[in-house]
Design brief:
Helix content: 25-40%
Number of strands: 10
Mean pLDDT: 79
Low-confidence stretches: 1-20, 24-43
Structural class: alpha+beta
Strand order of the largest sheet: 1-2-3-4-5-6-7-10
Radius of gyration: 32 Å
CATH architecture of the largest domain: Beta Barrel
Number of domains: 2
């Protein structure tokens, strides 16, 4: 063999070795098949969404509570949903001012239930109010806390960094049978 033919032969061997030693095409193909297989399931996308929606609407626990502070009373019902959200109803009867009646919606963060309370005051007032509430779960009871609230862009919330005081709260809700 002459030098030029040897050179071509050596180049072809080098190219073959590089092709044989480079596993990237094999791994890329295997990875693509694996990822495609993992993305498949027995449920279609809409079936998964429907399942999640059903879970979100499923009530996994219900609790009813009453609280009394002198002449003022309050009743609270709480439904914990499958997705961890809490929904319910809060009615506060003030002896002097009438009643606040509305819905709560929120989540537990640790042992504290943070909710938005959407309510009307009295029976003739059509104005809807929305305030944040915090209820500490302690010894099976829910203690309504008092905290500094501010409003920004039409939304009220507890001031970040300011503590919520659960000792100054007027209402401690004790569990009662649901009616």
């Amino acid at each position: 063999m002459s030098y030029s033919s040897n050179n071509g032969y050596i180049e072809s061997l080098i190219n073959k070795e590089i092709t044989m030693k480079n596993p990237f095409p094999y791994f890329a193909t295997a990875a693509a098949l694996f990822l495609f297989g993992c993305g498949q399931s027995s449920q279609s996308g809409s079936e998964k969404t429907d399942s999640l929606a059903k879970l979100a609407d499923t009530v996994i626990s219900t609790g009813c509570f009453k609280a009394v502070d002198q002449q003022d009373t309050a009743s609270l019902s709480v439904n914990t949903l499958g997705d961890g959200k809490v929904k319910g109803r809060l009615l506060i009867n003030f002896q002097e001012k009438g009643k606040n009646d509305g819905e709560i919606e929120g989540v537990y963060k640790g042992d504290t239930l943070f909710v938005d309370y959407t309510f009307k005051i009295g029976t003739t007032n059509e104005t809807v109010y929305k305030n944040p509430l915090a209820l500490l779960k302690k010894d099976g009871k829910l203690i309504l806390g008092v905290g500094q609230i501010e409003t920004s862009l039409g939304r009220s919330y507890f001031v970040k960094g300011k503590p919520i005081n659960f000792e100054k709260g007027r209402f401690t809700f004790a569990p009662v049978p649901c009616e």
